[in-house]
Amino acid sequence: MAACYGAGALSSLLAWWSGRLALGVGHLAALAGAVVGLGVSLGVLLGDPGRTLTQPLPVVFPFARLSLSVDGLSAYFLLVISLVAVAASIYGPAYLRAHSPDAGPARQAAQVVALNVFLGCMAFVCCAGDALSFLLCWEGMTLASYVLVVSDDRDGENARAGLLYMVMAHGGTALLLVAFLALTERAGAFDFTALRVAAGGLDSATRTTLFFLALGGFATKAGVVPLHVWLPRAHPAAPSHVSALMSGVMLKVAIYGILRFAFDLLAPAVEPLPSSWGWTVLVVGTTSAVLGVLYALQQHDLKRLLAFHSVENIGIILIGVGLAMILWRREIAGGALATVALTAALLHTVNHAAFKGLLFLAAGSVLCRTHVRNMEELGGLARRMPWTAGLFLLGAIAISALPPLNGFVSEWLTFQALLGGASHFRGPAGLSIVFSAAMLALTGGLAAACFAKAFGVTFLGRPRTPHAEHATEAPPSMIAGMVWLGAVCVALGVAPGYAMRLLDAPTAELLHGPGASAVVTARGPLVLSAALTPSGTNATAISMTVVAALLIALTAMAWVLRRGLRRAPQRGAPTWTCGMSPTARFDYTATAFAKPLRLIFATLYHLRREVIRETAGTPYVVRRIHYTGEVMDLAETQIYHRVERGISGLSQAIRARSTGRIHGYIAFVLGALFVALLLFGVGPR
Amino acid sequence: MTGERPLTLVLLEMTLLVLLGPLVTGTIQKLKALLQCRQGAGLLQPYHDIIKLLRKGTVQADTTSGFFRSIPVLVLAATVAAGALVPVVRSGPPAFPLGDALMLLGLLALARFLTAVGAFDAGGAFGGMGASREMTIAPLVEPVLMMVVFSTAVAAGTTELGALAAHRGASWILAWRAADFLGFAAMLVLLPAETGRIPVDNPDTHLELTMLHEGMLLEHSGPGLGCMMLASHTRQIVAFGLVSALFFPVGLADGAGVTGLLLGAGAFVAKILVLATWLALVESSYAKLRFFRVPQYLGIGFVCALMALALRIL
Predict the structure, then answer these.
(1) What is the pLDDT of residue A562?
(2) Which of B54, B124, B295 sits opposite A586 (nearest CB)?
(3) Which residue spans within A227-341 are E strands per DSSP?
(4) pLDDT digits 0-9 by tens, B208-254
(5) Chain B contact for A428, CB < 8 A?
(6) What distance in Å separates residue A437's CA from the closest CA in chain B?
(7) A215, A663, B224 from B181: Cα distances, Å
(8) Are B86 and B161 in contact (CB under 8 A)?
(9) A92, A227, A320, A338: least buried by Cβ within 10 Å?
(10) Rounded to the nearest 10 degrees, what angle do helices A275-297 and A302-327 cross at?
(11) Is the pLDDT reported for residue B141 higher than 90?
(12) Which residues 370-409 of A have a C-beta within 8 angstroms of B?
């Protein structure tokens, strides 16, 4: 696999000879890498249970042995990465050629190198067997994605987005570094086995501190509210197939990190996890889910809307993860409930990768054919790009958690786990878990509203601008990439029972309990079931397959009805617009669509609205109205702007002390050294 | 636990719901007319309407895409599929698992989503307006409905409606606790919203200031409109079925005997009549709320549902 990605990176050297060739070969290498990744992960997941693939790496540093180790959890995330990487590398070359035909070979070479490095690093973060290679690949992933973010268009906004991304990502990495170094210092080695042993001797306060450090670091990468501000800026700026990878996969690597730390590295030997961990993750997840979808609802930039939905879906995954942390080892329903919660989270991980990847790729096809991201300037694309429109609708139904597609399956499992947790805990804890379930329901409803808007305004009605009017269907290779992910969505929705086998290894390894398929598909692969009560007599069971078959049969019957009782004439006519001749300005806009919800949730939005009227003499004759509306992110105004003001205030205060005389500075340095020696200078006795 | 419902029975019940759906609408219209001292149209008027529409030709807006034609079909299919998940004459889970209350709400949400998407296609402002309002109300109704379902599901340990009904079945009203009363109150508040009636929506008018659901149907015509109408009748009776399965599983037969099934059917008709009378009373005695007052109205339901849950869990 390394060879493939390496070859991909090297192939960019061809760019000096021919840019097109470099694109093709580079993406082909990425595809090969992804296929190898798929093979490795499926081999581990379907092979003997408990088998771990370990591969020592050549010695690079004298002080540490580097190694790769692929256990069930690693293999599962490798599978998620490879699934989307396959689609992205099929989609990529045509997209880059169509979107920026005038790009020089140097830029194309840079993009291909960065893409391969990015994919390789993501894969190796999940397979790392020691702290050092984990951190190195983590950093490589960040840097490569930074290059991709700033590579697309040369304008100031992309550069700013990239800078914000770099700052936030490195803040997160710093927290991770502290957590890892604290562990490696105790262990005296870098490999995870030694870290596990070292973590066994920690007292609970240190353990919790280390967990929260790691959580902070991973949450920054995952884009959890309020650490998400970089995400809606950076993700849309990258080329679309890279956006699909960043949103669909890179965030999942952070989820991998959280799971690895909580259930593996830092987990106590026998007792349950401290309850503060799980509750924090649950609360943070619920907040992210609700706020993510609320902000997504008010976006008119198609890719930005999708980026905000990533915040929402990471929140849904974290609800499952948090619940699994709370329930684990508390002897609830024979340990099965924790398995249901973790299964829900892991299943949503792959589901989100599939549908978010699909949606970003479809948005990319729109972008490369119209060069417009603002959906108020689109419209009517369904007649011009039927494949893209159909696949976007598929992704929209999946992400809105509507049956019979895959989003519903993982949310159903999350609901069952939440309900089971609530009926076990009772009391305030139970009530807050149910409240979280209600918030999840709200999230689902709002997501449906948001995607009705996104699909309706972008693809239906009349084209609002010439860009949209002259759009044509995307090239076949781009459609092929989308169809791959669409097929994954349908397969995971209609027959999720068969995918449960893949979840066996990670769930059994992390929870040391029954695997996913033993709990969820106890009644055969066609039926999903979850027991809410400890006795498990009244298990709730659904069958996605049968419901899908029922839907298909009913659709066929309804189609007969739709054809009418007799052959009656059909004709077309202009839309009724109260007697005026219809134009594109009659189409409902995205802003108007979202207005009721904007007013209902006004406190969360910090609305800014400005209307300027130009009148001709009397106020009754209006020549022109200029309207600007803006929605501010609550986290930005309440936290980041305050921090920014604090920092600039502090630097103003320091500036008053900086006199420019070298004596004063030396005195400061000496003073600081003295204080530091007093505080930390006491060595081991 | 009682016996399981064979799959043929499930399909029969689904067919029954679809066939009875328009009659319920007709009954509500008739009751409303009587309450308002009018004669009103006959009970069977909705059937006549649908048959008339199915015989008509189609006029379709010329800006629409290929999706538009298939929207009524998909909406009808999703709604009817939701009908298969409601126990009508017998309690107990289906012999082969189909779906639970969450699946039912999901299928209804799918139908609503597709209707809203279809409303955009003709490119008129009315469709978009209706879709916008419908998709504003829906996310507010859905969590509360789920909370009501949860409040009964926590007690029964399952979200499968047939099993839920079987769990409550034997000891019906004597076993009602405060949580049930509150949950039922929440359901009564939500019912007009879910069935698209006053004070949330007005099914009788096409005036753009009042309509939610009707606005989305404006551009459909002929058989397509017939399918959409049938879907909304079915949606109404499915919502009634959900309420009666959650709160009045009385009369649902335990065994397979013919008398039991007939008794169950009779009880179901009685329950539907009670709920239909409730809707007719509410529609006749209240005005439609201003759109931005609706969230406050739904807030009553939310508080009731939250209290029901709290009583159940604390």
Answers:
(1) 86
(2) B124
(3) none
(4) 666 788 888 888 999 999 999 999 999 999 999 999 888 888 766 66
(5) yes
(6) 8
(7) 43, 79, 40
(8) yes
(9) A227
(10) 160
(11) yes
(12) 379-380, 382-383, 386, 389, 393, 397, 400-403, 408
| C-alpha span between A399 and A444 (Å, rounded) | 9
Integer angstrom CA distances of residue B62 from A463, A469, B117: 13, 15, 17
Mean pLDDT within A275-290: 94
Q: What is the ipTM of this complex?
A: 0.95
Average pLDDT over residues A497-514: 87
With cut-offs at 50, 70 and 90, classify the pLDDT of residue A170. very high
Q: Tell me if B97 and A584 make a contact (CB, 8 A cut-off).
A: no
H-only helix segments in chain B: 7-35, 45-55, 67-83, 101-121, 125-156, 161-169, 178-195, 213-217, 222-247, 258-285, 294-313
Between CA B149 and CA A662 the distance in angstroms is 73
Give the HSE-up count for residue B107: Cα atoms under 13 Å, Cβ half-sphere.
29
The residue among A293, A352, A381, A349 whose CA lies nearest residue A485 is A352
Amino acid sitting at position A405: L
pLDDT at B1: 41
Axis-axis angle for helices B294-313, A427-459 (nearest 10): 150
Please state, in angstroms and rounded to a whole number, the distance separating the CA atoms of residues A227 and A597: 24
What is the per-residue pLDDT across A235-246, written as a single tens digit (0 to 9) for each? 888 889 999 999
Determine contact, residues B256/B241, Cβ cutoff 8 Å: no
- pLDDT score at B169: 66
Distance CA B184, CA B196 (A): 18
Query: Which tokens in the block code for residue A45?
Result: 């997941």
**Residue that is written with structure tokens 């369904």 in the block:** A382
Mean of pLDDT over chain A: 87
Q: How far is CA B28 from CA A231, A340, B19, B86, B229, in A?
A: 51, 44, 16, 21, 15
Given a contact cutoff of 8 angstroms between Cβ atoms, the answer to whether B97 and A543 are in contact is yes
Question: Which whole-number Å values give the CA distances from A481 to A367, A456, A571, in the listed order?
Answer: 16, 23, 37
Going B92 to B96 to B100 to B104, the CA torsion angle's sign is negative
Is pLDDT at A20 greater than 70 in this prediction? no
Q: What is the residue whose two structure tokens read 């919790």?
A: A208
What does the angle CA A470 – CA A472 – CA A478 come to, to the nearest 5 degrees? 145
